[in-house]
Amino acid sequence: MPSSQPFLSILIPSYNRARFVKSLVTSLAHQIERDDLEGVEIVIADNASNDDTAETVTNLAARWPFVRLYTQPTHFGSAEKNIFTAVGVCRGKYAWTISDDDHVSDSGIKFIINLLKTRAPAFALLNVSLFDTLGNMRHYYYIPQETGRQLSDNDDLTLRDLIETIGFLGLLTSISSAIFEIEPVRAIDLLSIIEKSEIYSHSAVYMQAFGSKKTIFVPQPIVNVYDDEGLALDKISFVSASSGKQRMYSWTIGLARLIEACDLDVGKIWEVTPTNRILLGDLITSYMCDQITLWLDSRLNDQVFTDREVDIVLNALAATSSTRLVLTWNRLRQIGLLLRPLALPADKSNETFFSTMAALPTETYTEFIETLNNYARETIVQLRGALSPDLIGTIEEGELDGYRISRRGTQWIAEHAATATSVSEPLQTGEHYPDRLVAGSRQVLEARILGLVGNSDAKKRTAKRLQKFDKSVMPPAIVAAADWIIAPEYLMRASPEARAARTANGAEGLIDFWIGNVRNNIVPSPLISLPWFRHNNGQLESRPGPPTLEKVVTIAIPSGLPFCPVFDEHWYLATYTDATHALSSGEVETGFEHYMRFGGQRGYDPCAEFDEEFYLASHPDARRACGNGLYRSGAEHYMAEGAMLGYNPSRQFSEAEYLVVNADVGNAVRVGVWANGFLHWLAMGKKEGRAIAHDGRTFARSLG
């Protein structure tokens, strides 16, 4: 049960989205109950909604006492203001802000609490997986994997270091990615920061509160963030318009004011996204060009800069220590000087340059305006030309066998670390330069590297298959997984065609058969359960897209979404440090891959509820089957045979007793609705708080 003094406050800002709040809070509350977590409260910051949010949260709070509602007295125009005015009612040492439509992976709260107690940071930034609103994954790692590993290994990291490495505007502004000590935030003047510019104000708040304090970065995503790609501009522009600001205010004047308040150098901050990398100073300059063009095209007074606003941006840009940007700032200053005759007075009166010039003869007015516009546009074109190399950007993505791998625009480039020299000319995809390789995807690039220099047998096989399937429509993730995901004996018993392929062409024939039949939902291992995936990921499964098995391999496994009753990605990584180290080093891509390659054969438990040692000791036929190579673990045997035979998965859970105590489940098993009691308990009984024994014990308590 949660303690009276919380350690962690989960703060959920929301406005008119009661159904999202109900789903998220229910999911989080089940984690808190199941994992028996103490010291956690959930606070919903209702931004004066006019739907049934208050009633929904009140009902949730009646069921779970650790849920609380805070309703703003008036509606705020941004989530940032809602969040930081609600921080004052949070009672924990730490606050974790979570967007109401995002998803926290199973056991994610437990993982975070253990992390905070072990490493005691002032601020923690979580990497996230990015999905569109249809449930399609856009990027598993928001911050590229190699960058994330380097940051997570830095024990002396401060928030200023983090901002200079990954940016002020990107991941740091994702509501669900930030966890912070509450007291330092309460100690600063929040409203004065928010008044400078509401959008991105949370980055400035974090910087002022934690700039020089201990910060950690969590590279493995435990939050799925759902967003409409391409709508950010419209959303932020709406906030600008509602407050009487220029369309690009949040990226120009407002951003410059926040940067000035944080004493940051825009020539040192690299804004990193999953696909690009750009200097913050160049980004501000680019948006200044957009705003000026919008003004000149629209002739609208509400898009005009004042003298003071022009100076704010120029001063922020001029403060950089980057000598490379001097020419850029000079060109922008030319535009700024050009704008002065057009700019409004500081009081933004209605006497604008255009209204004054309108009194002149029409020909004189038109000629002057056209001359001024042409000069402004020429200057902007020159400025954009100076920006273009950085707008393409280069993201370092790690090394492989002596080659540095990076992404430049849409190209993947491998440069030999010992001989590579900097180049600026365009590279041709598919060409082999003396010290670099160029390809259109990382998989093809790695295949070419491995083909040149060799590697482990597994990587050589994967590289060969990637080349074989390069021209097909089969996702490379499936090809790469084929080396470890297949349980050969299981697959051959399930499919006579698979056995024939193995007989004809050996192990490679079996692998080729499976890759070619993924879209026929030919399951490669008993640990992949398509019904379990559908049961737990109904929204994702119902979306248009590839067949179910392809979604499991390309989305569920990399994201830690449930696809198997007896495997828990986050519990497994939190329990076995060698799995975590293998993931951090790049030896494996997921905890499930580690289990399939190594953990199962080492006797590791795949989840908290399944006891591998007990299962093999209690069931001799399972032990013999594993010893004969029919299965790689007791868990595989259980999913293939043991579940249907009613075998007990652990000493805490008695299949027969559960069915007696829960007579309705016993009846459902007898008529074939459920395969056995344990699978029912995992799917529903655990959430319903059902007893597993005559004395009323629940599984979590019996684990003690």
UniProtKB/TrEMBL annotation:
<feature type="domain" description="Glycosyltransferase 2-like">
    <location>
        <begin position="9"/>
        <end position="127"/>
    </location>
</feature>
<protein>
    <recommendedName>
        <fullName>Glycosyltransferase 2-like domain-containing protein</fullName>
    </recommendedName>
</protein>
<dbReference type="InterPro" id="IPR029044">
    <property type="entry name" value="Nucleotide-diphossugar_trans"/>
</dbReference>
<dbReference type="InterPro" id="IPR001173">
    <property type="entry name" value="Glyco_trans_2-like"/>
</dbReference>
<dbReference type="InterPro" id="IPR050834">
    <property type="entry name" value="Glycosyltransf_2"/>
</dbReference>
<dbReference type="Pfam" id="PF00535">
    <property type="entry name" value="Glycos_transf_2"/>
</dbReference>
